[in-house]
Amino acid sequence: MSLRWLLGAVTILASLVFGVSVVSVNRLIRMSSEQRLERGRDLVQRELARWAEAPDADGGAARFTVLGLRGGTAQDPAIPGGPIPIRSGLSGEADRALSTLAAVAPRDRAEVGALDVEEGTLFLGARRSADGRLLWVAYTVSMSKLVGTWRLIAGLLTSATVLLGGIALGTVIAATRGARGLKRSLAALEEDLTAEVPRPALAELSSVAEGVASLAASLAAAERERERLAEELGRKERLAALGRVVAGVAHEVRNPLASIKLRVDMARTSEGVPAEVAQELDAVDEEITRLDRLLTDFLVVSGRRIGRRVDTELRDVVDRRLVLLSTWAKERGVSLAVSGRARAVVDPDACARAVDNLVKNGVEASPAGAEVRVQIERRGGLSVLTVEDDGDGVPEDRASELFEPFFTTKPEGTGLGLAVSRAIAVASGGRLTYQREGGVTRFELSVPAEGGAA
Predict the structure, then answer these.
(1) How many Cβ atoms from other residues are within 10 Å of residue 447's Cβ?
(2) What number of CA atoms fall less than 13 Å from residue 160's CA on the CB side?
(3) Which residue, 58, 93, 272, 342, is most buried by CB atoms nearer than 10 A?
(4) Running DSSP on this structure, what letter comes out for residue 396?
(5) CA distance readout (Å), 273 to 261, 359, 400
(6) What pLDDT does residue 370 have?
(7) Which has the closest alpha carbon to 365: 417, 431, 404?
(8) Beta 343-346 vs 382-389: how paired, if at all?
(9) How crowded is the C-beta side of 94, counted as CA atoms within 13 Å?
(10) What beta strand segments (E) does 129-176 contain?
(11) How far apart are CA 18 and CA 289, in angstroms?
């Protein structure tokens, strides 16, 4: 059933209970008052009857049996000497009412009237006695002290009924609005798990909304993780396929390269080799070395293991590479700067190749007169090597492809530099990340700071 109907039913039932209670209390008050007044009227009649039938011996003065009852006599207007106005000592209004009653009072029964006074209800009675006297009696019936209490109870019940109705109405409105808000939020979350979930005014619905928001956040995080894992799985599958190809190519190419290099070295060291031929043989040897390095890069990207990792001072590795790269950077109008130091467990040769790739990328992306900054620091259990430049970076829509093999934005690039650097970071137990913020391109190479040689 709907919460609105349930609250409405509760409100109606409670209102009926309160209504019946208020009516009952008012009825009790009225019945109690009527009974007191009826007893007061009956008392006046009985006392007048008793007095008229059995007057007291001392001149006819009455001795009343009820405390608070007052009475007296007056001359009958029919007796010679004229009428005597009744003076009861109560009030002028009471005297006038008694005179009126005396004028119409019969001999065989009492005439009773009532006046509302501050103390309650004043009953006045008049009757003619057998000896011709005019008898009058006055008796005040005060309001019961319990009447005020009963009226207070009735007022409280009425106020409680109104308050209950207001609370129920407010609850229905708040619950309806909260439920509608949650329904709209659920519809929005079907399209976007990051949609905002408003908090209803009711605490119970607010806790439900918090649970929905928490669930949506968890689902969004799980979706991001699923996408990341799918991307990582796809990358690993591509690298696995590449690894199988590279392993075969490396095997088929390295053996001929080794044979060629051996013959070139033998030719270079032979006696009587002309200088021009020796110079050409040196160039051939450099190209063989470059091809061998390229094969090594393929093997690293495809997931083949790097060399043995040892405890290394990263600043020493960076300083050596920057000395070799500084001349080339100056030719392009770019300066190099390094700060900080930290130790890490890495393969020094592989780490040097990663530094070369990151610094070369920064220099090639920087405009003339710019500076490529290398910072080394310790962050908890990691040593972080950061390379920053003021270049344009890569288009935002292609940032996810940045570390893919053969991805490049340079016409002369091979697209292996960043892929090799990331593979070295992963093989070293770390990671390589890219950030673009405030016109600065930042690569962070994070590797374990401790752990011993591997």
Answers:
(1) 27
(2) 14
(3) 342
(4) G
(5) 17, 40, 53
(6) 92
(7) 417
(8) unpaired
(9) 19
(10) 134-142
(11) 100
* Residue the block writes with tokens 């007095």: 51
Q: Are 36 and 144 in contact (CB under 8 A)?
A: yes
Cβ atoms of residues 435 and 444 within 8 Å: yes
d(CA 403, CA 421): 9
Residues 357/351, Cβ–Cβ less than 8 Å: no
CB atoms within 10 A of CB 156: 13
Average pLDDT, integer, range 201-216 = 82
Answer yes or no: are the C-beta atoms of 72 and 136 closer than 8 Å: yes
pLDDT score of 157 more than 80: no
CA geometry: angle at 199 spanning 197 and 202, to 5°?
145
Question: How, if at all, do strands 70-74 and 120-128 pair?
Answer: unpaired
Say how many C-beta atoms besides its own lie within 10 A of residue 79's C-beta: 12
d(C-alpha 72, C-alpha 156), whole Å: 46
- pLDDT tens digits, residue range 215-230? 888 888 888 888 888 8
Q: Which residue has the higher pLDDT, 115 or 234?
A: 115
Enter the pTM of the model: 0.43
